[in-house]
Amino acid sequence: MRFRDTRTLSALLRLSLFTGAAMLHLASCSSSEAPAKPPPTAVTAQTITPTDVPITTLFVSQTQSSQAVNIQARVSGFLEKRVYTEGSRVKTGQILFEMDKKPFQAQVDGAAAALQRNEAALEVARTNLARTKPLVELNALSQKDLDDARGQFEQSGAAVAQSKAQLDSAKLDLSYATIRSPVDGVSSFSAVADGTYVDTKNAQLTTVSVLSPMWINFSLSENDLSQMRQEEKAGRLKPPEDGKFTVEIELSDGSLFPQTGTIDFTDPSYNSETGTFLIRAVVDNPHGTLRPNQYVRAKTVGATRPHAILIPQRAVQQSAQGHFVWIVNSSSQAEMRPVVVGNWHGNDWFINEGLASGDRVIVDGAQRLAPGSALTVTDAAEPKATSASTATTSY
Predict the structure, then answer these.
(1) Is residue 105 in some structural domain?
(2) Which residues pair with 238 in a beta bridge?
(3) Among 303, 334, 357, which residue terminates a domain?
(4) Would you say 317 and 325 are in contact if contact means Cβ atoms under 8 Å apart?
(5) CATH number of the domain residue 195 falls in
(6) Burial of 275 (0-12, 13-18, 19+ CB in 10 A)
(7) Are 197 and 218 in a shared domain?
(8) Is 151 helix (H, G, I), strand (E, B) or coil?
(9) Quick one: 287 and 325 in the same domain?
(10) Distance CA 357, CA 308 (A)
(11) E strands of 140-258, at which residues?
């Protein structure tokens, strides 16, 4: 038993010595060989070239008629019939409704008769005054008779003037019985049925909305306005030279409305509930394509960002310390560069700080990089100039 234990112990000692020698041999071999360098990483880089970029801002907007006229009955009476077709376009002076004219015609006839009676009385008073004057000069009549004749003549003249005014009023009421459109526009539904008695309580008959020009209403928040002012103060935003923005209208299907507009009104006060203030643009709408209360998108065009640096959004990464990009240094190695980003512009990002003209920013292949990584660089295709009608800036 002891013999077997001795043989086992000897075998274990020989195995340990052999293993140790092998490990020493491997260690000596590995220490004598230099570590293999990883192959260069293939990346695509874009060379920074500052350029002036047109700035457009997109707003959700709603159309409004520039003149929506409430058609109301100006006299009380029975509505005889509706003449126009609801929802149709109407012209200035076109008849919309007709009321029962008989009561108003009777008032005109009565006023005309009263005028005729008072004119006859005035003629009698004029003749009487003409006879009285020479008789008073001959002392055939007293001065009182002359004063009475003159007073009667003046009263008759006043009565004639009053009758004329009453006749004009009656004729005016008669004309109001025929209700016409005061503007060119599109009509709404009839709010009162034929045969209804119309008075001050239900005088609203319909609405006619002018279609051209059309107002485009949108709102700007206080935060966005503050940011725009800061960008302008920092020289990163330049408004149009004449201060007038062009407004393009994008319809719900994405197509562009053929006419452009201009901003003609900005509300000087904020809406306390929404924290925004109203901006209104006016645009010609000759074919009536735009209708009141329609939702569209308005693009303000005319501002520029001078000497702007734009890079694709995919080139910008973020860490706990902020945004950064990878650039190709002079040794064709990867270098991390912190940047300060601005607003989005289409699929690109404005860079406010951190990059300069001539820097080569890695736009593809940056996920596998580490500082000092060797690079195989392919130049990115030249970015196409972004027009104001194809890209918008997000605030």
Answers:
(1) yes
(2) 304
(3) 303
(4) yes
(5) 2.40.50.100
(6) exposed
(7) no
(8) helix
(9) no
(10) 10
(11) 178-180, 185-187, 197-198, 204-209, 214-221, 246-250
Largest CA distance in the chain: 187
164, 187, 209 - which closes a domain: 209
Q: How far apart are CA 241 and CA 239, in angstroms?
A: 6
C-alpha closest to that of 169 among 85, 254, 112: 112
Residue with tokens 């008075």: 199
Residue 372 sits at φ, ψ, to 5 deg, of: 90, 0
CA dist 201 and 296 (Å) reads 36
pTM for this predicted structure: 0.73
Query: Whole domain around residue 188: which residue ranges?
Result: 69-100+177-209
User: Domain check: are 87 and 219 in the same one?
Assistant: no
219 and 297, same domain (yes or no) = yes
Number of structural domains the chain divides into:
4
CA distance 216 to 43: 47
> Tokens 């940047």 identify what position?
339
Residues 296 and 231 occupy one common structural domain? yes
10-residue averages of pLDDT along the chain (395 residues): 46 48 48 64 92 92 96 95 95 96 96 96 93 88 89 94 96 96 95 94 95 95 88 90 91 93 91 89 94 94 93 92 93 93 90 94 89 88 56 66
